Amino acid sequence: MLKNITIGQYFPGNTVIHKLDPRIKIIITLLFIISLFIIDNFLPYLFVSIFIFTSIFISKVPFKFILKGLKPLFFIILITFIINVFMTKGEILFEIGPLDVTKEGLKLATFMALRLIFLIIGTSLLTLTTSPISLTDGIERLLNPFKRIGVPAHELAMMMTIALRFIPTLLEETDKIMKAQMARGADFESGNVLKRAKSLVPLLVPLFISAFRRADELALAMEARCYRGGENRTRMKQLILSRRDYIALGISILLLGLIIVDRLL
Amino acid sequence: MIIKVEGLTHIYNPNSPFETKALDNVNLEIAKGEFVGLIGHTGSGKSTLIQHLNGLIKPTSGKVIIDGVDISAEGANLKDIRQKVGLVFQYPEHQLFEETIYKDVAFGPINLGLSEEEVDKRVKEAIELVGLNYDKIKNRSPFELSGGQKRRVAIAGVLAMEPEVLILDEPTAGLDPKGRDEILKQIKKLHQDFNMTIILVSHSMEDIARLVDKIIVMHKGRVSIVGKPKDVFKKADELEELGLGVPQVTYFMRELKKRGKKVRDDIITVEDAKEEILRLLRGNGNA
């Protein structure tokens, strides 16, 4: 069941998308998200779909993999959809008990659901095609200008690197503890909400203990290797922008431009 | 046969770049009351194999039959199987979670839906079975115990389910010599006193040589050698090629033999070696 989580999981490859500078990829993703929030009717979604599906195609990440990433968030999307359907006032199409389904509601709900789906696909494409290390490298470099106003860029990036690095470890640990408790007859899958929540105690307590133990050990190991963050730290891989980065950035600015123009018209 | 594995294959992450074949057409049989040692270098598929034996993971293809029941079939009663086959994972103390030792050991029996008296009885028995003092320890927190004691509490948690087969994945890893000896002693006792079928995964060839009736050697997801310890450990070169070895004392006896002493070549425990060397010194083994 834990295998379904693809958020923050890297899908190794050697395509143009994989090779893009992480800074550019992060900026493109931000532009993409901004585009999604500017959109106010259905037509621009066509551009967005072309953009995102072409990217997925080039990246060679199997589409199934991306769909799997949507699965855990299915309920959030569903709830957003339902709330929007019922809570929007307007021309009534039909009624379900005390609730009205309006034309505007249905439109807005589809609209919001699409926005969420594209948001998730876009951001998961970023993490699927960028290794966690280069991702945090990119974030650190992007935050660098803000150092002057006291943003601890390096520390933030380091924290993120560590957090990302431990996602698979913790998932593995969760899987292991779950299996160990299942071997003792624990049941995580049946019963009502309350019973299921209660059944998580044998999982969460050992998980927290092990997370703290790992954190402790990691801190010690870093200190033992004289870790000091910040000033004058050099890096093994220098980030250098190349032509493909500018082209990719150009394309996404074009997308944003199109959507802004559409909105203004 | 209490355990029968037929053509068992397991593939992790199928159809992704991380696809790995952990088990490849594994066939084996384990009889009731047997004490089996499972060895193999890291990543040889031991852990995957033992997790199949109580239905924690499903085979990609092949069958696992426990006591005549095919547990890989749809709708198999897994609770039943997990009661019958107790699995103690590596570092089992990492799964302790309750406030008191009593509650933690009772977790399994309660999940089985047993009556309060039965749970009570089993917890007491299990704690004493692993050599701890029930009255002294039952209301203490499992987190204030020493490493070896914690591990024994965790093992008691599995024993309290009264399994017929007990599988232990490196039960002595990371313990001091005293803790290690105690755990192994308890395991041996379980085998002798209750005729429990035991599968022991270990990297210590000494422990394996001393305890088990049969060795199964895994390599690259396949069963590569099966046999009695004395026979398996004769194949020192083959085992070394698989990233394993033989007990130190077997190397020692082999060296003696190489130097022209007439000693037996199937010696795997220190006790046997002692007898053999004494025999040699008394003069009736010298060439």
From TrEMBL, chain A:
Cross-referenced InterPro entries: ABC/ECF_trnsptr_transmembrane, ECF_transporter_component, EcfT
GO MF: transmembrane transporter activity
Subcellular location: Cell membrane
This protein's UniProt keywords: Cell membrane, Membrane, Transmembrane, Transmembrane helix, Transport
Domain of life from the UniProt record: Bacteria
Membrane-spanning segments: 26-58, 70-87, 108-129, 149-171, 246-264
Pfam family, one: CbiQ
Chief localisation class: membrane
Topology term for the membrane: Multi-pass membrane protein
A Gene Ontology cellular-component term: plasma membrane
Similarity field: Belongs to the energy-coupling factor EcfT family.
PANTHER family membership: SLL0384 PROTEIN
Subunit structure: Forms a stable energy-coupling factor (ECF) transporter complex composed of 2 membrane-embedded substrate-binding proteins (S component), 2 ATP-binding proteins (A component) and 2 transmembrane proteins (T component).
Function (record text): Transmembrane (T) component of an energy-coupling factor (ECF) ABC-transporter complex. Unlike classic ABC transporters this ECF transporter provides the energy necessary to transport a number of different substrates.
Protein's UniProt name: Energy-coupling factor transporter transmembrane protein EcfT
Species of origin: Thermohalobacter berrensis
Automatic annotation (TrEMBL), chain B:
EC number from the UniProt entry: 7.-.-.-
Keywords tagged on the record: ATP-binding, Cell membrane, Membrane, Nucleotide-binding, Translocase, Transport
Top enzyme category: translocase
GO molecular function, one term: ATP hydrolysis activity
Gene Ontology BP annotations: cobalt ion transport
InterPro entries, per the entry: AAA+_ATPase (IPR003593), ABC_transporter-like_ATP-bd (IPR003439), ABC_transporter-like_CS (IPR017871), ABC_transpr_CbiO/EcfA_su (IPR015856), Co_trans_ATP-bd (IPR005876), ECF_ABC_transporter_ATP-bd (IPR050095), EcfA2 (IPR030946), P-loop_NTPase (IPR027417)
Keyword match Ion transport: no
A cellular component term, taken from the record's GO annotations: ATP-binding cassette (ABC) transporter complex
Annotated membrane topology: Peripheral membrane protein
Record's subcellular location: Cell membrane
Entry annotated with the keyword Membrane: yes
Domain ABC transporter: 3-245
Subunit structure: Forms a stable energy-coupling factor (ECF) transporter complex composed of 2 membrane-embedded substrate-binding proteins (S component), 2 ATP-binding proteins (A component) and 2 transmembrane proteins (T component).
NCBIfam families associated with the record: cbiO, ECF_ATPase_2, PRK13637.1
Family: Belongs to the ABC transporter superfamily. Energy-coupling factor EcfA family.
Task of the protein: Probably part of an ABC transporter complex. Responsible for energy coupling to the transport system. ATP-binding (A) component of a common energy-coupling factor (ECF) ABC-transporter complex.
Name of this chain's protein: Energy-coupling factor transporter ATP-binding protein EcfA2
Organism: Thermohalobacter berrensis
